[in-house]
Design goal:
Helices cover 41% and strands 6% of the residues. The strands form six sheets. A three-stranded antiparallel sheet has the order 3-4-5, with helices on one face.
């Protein structure tokens, strides 16, 4: 989802309707209009039945964590809390579904604001944002970021027309960017380093084979004493790129043109580094580069995460050639990532692809989180027909099962069963995709 730029005058005039930091404005807590419903085919009641079930899942996952006083959107299923890699983005998608949600004590937009504010409120004095805000604790043992919280905050600010939230988000995300520069660029390359498996949220992925899940002493400033560590990561670097693009837009809206220009320049600097250092033309893939300057040649969904932040600019011939190679040889290749139920977390023709598929595995399963992120880049790169195919496949699989689980077999569309349903990303996948497929 691209974030349009508003000029400051228009933004601030709209902000006469803005909420306060304590979220007391009635339109965020009361909704009186009848919720809309997509134009589902009347011959197939499973569309409407699954729609209502998904809404029920999300309503049940709006909960409070002990460390923050307002309700936020929980991940659901076995995940009791919100994670920075996905929670803010999920709450943004939920907010975009507001017209379809029945009146409740708190609106989806307020939930999205709360979910972002939870991370900002719990930010450490040195600028580190939490990796997670859970029922059990607030996690700082890894960075665990994918979709930039700055990018989702910018879109939420535009939805709410709340310049107080915008200013707070800009301050928090600026400090987070500085923390990453200080502690996650130890090799002084200008790129972002991964220290552990959970940094990218790639649980049980061959990409991180042999690397600890968390940072030493649960301190995200520490890399393990392993010769190949730390790594330069294309997806973490892309997340910072996308965050800087959003920070430039925020700065412009806040009347800070000098800062906006600096963020834009810093974004372009890291973008070019990703392309020059972390792309392999031989494989048409983005890879981690270890501390011995060797590619970690595991073709993972880090590739699509780079595209998720629009790192490739198709107005440049080199970028266009890279995109066509990545799209043809990897992401849309039926032997690699484009399974009958796309997109896989590891290419199916990669030697490390995990079979059979265990629970919570980024070793091959098609993950609901990856699907939820697909509209962020596929339409941008002109792949609308293929996005429709992906959305149809996911809606078919979810309707068939009638539950909302984390991952599925990319060949059969069968969801992994050991964990319970109630997973917010899967519910959001269904609602967002069903809405897009059946808009009038």
């Amino acid at each position: 989802m691209s974030a349009p730029t508003q000029n400051r005058r228009r933004f601030l005039s709209n902000s006469a309707m803005a909420i306060t930091a304590t979220l007391t404005t009635p339109h965020l807590f009361a909704q009186t209009t009848k919720p809309q419903t997509p134009n589902f085919p009347p011959t197939d009641p499973s569309w409407q039945r699954t729609w209502q079930a998904a809404l029920t899942v999300l309503a049940g996952n709006v909960r409070q964590a002990p460390a923050f006083p307002q309700p936020i959107l929980f991940e659901g299923s076995t995940y009791q809390g919100a994670w920075q890699e996905c929670g803010p983005h999920e709450s943004l998608v939920y907010a975009s579904l507001s017209p379809y949600v029945a009146p409740a004590a708190i609106t989806p937009l307020a939930v999205a604001i709360n979910t972002h504010r939870a991370f900002f409120a719990l930010q450490k004095p040195d600028g580190q944002l939490p990796a997670s805000v859970k029922v059990s604790d607030v996690g700082f043992g890894q960075i665990q970021m994918v979709v930039p919280i700055a990018a989702t905050a910018w879109e939420v600010a535009q939805m709410s027309r709340d310049d107080r939230f915008l200013a707070d988000a800009y301050a928090a995300c600026s400090r987070w960017d500085q923390w990453l520069r200080t502690y996650r660029d130890t090799r002084k390359t200008g790129l972002v380093e991964g220290f552990c498996t959970y940094d990218t949220g790639h649980d049980n992925s061959p990409r991180w084979a042999g690397i600890p899940n968390r940072c030493p002493d649960a301190d995200a400033r520490k890399s393990p004493a392993i010769p190949s560590m730390p790594r330069l990561c294309p997806d973490l670097s892309a997340t910072v790129y996308g965050g800087r693009i959003a920070l430039a837009a925020m700065a412009k809206a806040l009347g800070k043109p000098g800062e906006a220009a600096r963020w834009q320049a810093d974004a372009e600097h890291i973008r070019l580094l990703i392309l020059s250092k972390l792309y392999s033309p031989e494989d048409a893939a983005f890879y981690d580069l270890d501390a011995q300057n060797k590619f970690v040649r595991v073709r993972s969904d880090a590739i699509s995460r780079v595209l998720g932040e629009h790192v490739l600019d198709l107005s440049h011939s080199r970028d266009k050639a890279i995109f066509e190679a990545v799209w043809t040889r990897q992401l849309h290749n039926p032997k690699a990532f484009w399974a009958p139920f796309p997109l896989t977390s590891i290419a199916m023709d990669d030697p490390t692809f995990v079979r059979p598929i265990p629970r919570n595995s980024w070793g091959g399963a098609s993950q609901a989180l990856t699907a939820l992120r697909a509209p962020r880049w596929m339409s941008h790169y002109g792949k609308r027909a293929e996005l429709t195919q992906l959305m149809q496949a996911w809606c078919e699989a979810i309707r068939r099962h009638g539950e909302f689980r984390q991952q599925m077999d990319p060949q059969t569309g069968d969801f992994t069963q050991p964990d319970p349903g109630g997973y917010s990303p899967a519910a959001l996948v269904y609602l967002d995709f069903a809405r897009r497929l059946h808009q009038d």
